[in-house]
Amino acid sequence: MVRLVLGGAHKTLAPSRQLTLEIAPAPRFGREDFFVSDSNEKAYAMIELWPDWPDKALVILGPAGAGKSHLGAIWAAKAKARALYAAELARADIDALAAAGPLLVEDLEAIGAAETHLFHLVNLLRERGVALALTARKPPDAWGLQIPDLLSRLRLAPCVEIGTPDDALMRAVLVKHFVDRQLVVDPGAVEYAALRLDRSLNAARSFVDALDREALSRQRPITRAMVADVLRDLSSAEDAPRLVGEEDR
Length: 249
Prior knowledge:
The protein is an alpha/beta fold. The chain has helices spanning about 40-50, 70-80, 95-100, 115-130, 150-155, 165-180, 185-195, 200-220, 225-235; strands at about 5, 10, 35, 55-60, 80-85, 105, 130-135, 160.
């Protein structure tokens, strides 16, 4: 079961005979777009706990396409934080960043030459008691950091982890994308796709994009057969989201 967060309330998604919801597309990383499931519930709870975090820093972990950037954006909106990618720190005015208030830094595996800048930033934020959220796929020990003191400081920060999207979350995200496009899709076709797509929110979005284009091209309603055709086409493309069970490339 998955709940859609709408203004702080969790709403349960109930199956229907036909999906013909007509609403305007919501902001991509809006709080109202975040679906809470078993795979991300603990991480979402920590974001909701703000500003009463156990520490001023937080590391949000998760595989690609799991929703960690979305969760980070929800926190940034709540904390009125600035956001940037780790690699951008090499060109940033670190003193000005630290003075500007809460900060979200994404994609820490790509810190590279900006590691010294991150070290300076972490120290300044800690001295001033300013909040810092970081997103990454793996814990700090896997970022290839060369500054021992920086690694020690980051190890002290609490970590919350978003798991690979489960079946319920995949269904909910697919439904949301169909709703955004005002597409009529039978729930059976949604279920068929949810069980076969790679467990990635990016894969869900790419699939719905492709299905929408296919339906427009054929000028036909979306059917399970069309869903199967699109899944097959995507799985054979080099840059397509992988189907469950397909080997990593």
